[in-house]
Design a protein that fits this description.
Length: 168
């Protein structure tokens, strides 16, 4: 099935993308984001605030070992992660419904640049002060009666779309 070993994964060229989880409560959501990050060769997952960190059985349940392949780092505060990313030259987007947000199909990315996306808490979303400090917001168009998606589903859609724009 052409699966990489853990060593091969770590040596593989990564998609220039860091996924930041801003106070995500569900360990299953955390694990799911790790698994998607592994699938699309994401550089790292930053776990911020109350977001749990590996090793943890409930993260492993959905990550299925991806928490051991994808690089990760914990920050007590999301603003610290945001500042580190900006200092390292990343363009940072909050994934949020906001005035002036860029709809995902309209997002244009430069393959020579590095990006980070911030996914927010399951109830409150990305902290407003974090949104305000980002370079912009990306919004997933939605057409039904509900205008929110599960954070791991959102992560899957966003990671796949950015992977297509940067790596394919």
């Amino acid at each position: 099935m052409n699966r990489l070993t853990i060593e091969e994964f770590k040596d593989e060229k990564k998609t220039p993308l860091v996924v930041v989880l801003d106070n995500v409560r569900s360990l299953h959501n955390v694990g799911s984001v790790f698994r998607t990050a592994d699938a699309f060769l994401v550089e790292a997952v930053y776990l911020c605030g109350i977001t749990s960190t590996p090793p943890h059985a409930e993260i492993h349940k959905t990550a299925l070992g991806a928490e051991n392949t994808v690089a990760w780092k914990h920050f007590e505060d999301t603003h610290l992660a945001l500042q580190e990313l900006k200092d390292a030259g990343y363009t940072v987007f909050a994934i949020e419904q906001a005035l002036g947000s860029t709809m995902l199909p309209d997002l244009k990315l430069d393959k020579t640049k590095k990006y980070a996306v911030i996914l927010g808490n399951e109830v409150k979303g990305v902290q407003q002060s974090v949104v305000d400090a980002c370079d912009g917001c990306i919004e997933i168009p939605q057409f039904g009666t509900k205008h929110s998606l599960n954070v791991s589903v959102t992560g899957g859609i966003i990671i796949w779309e950015i992977f297509k724009k940067l790596a394919l």
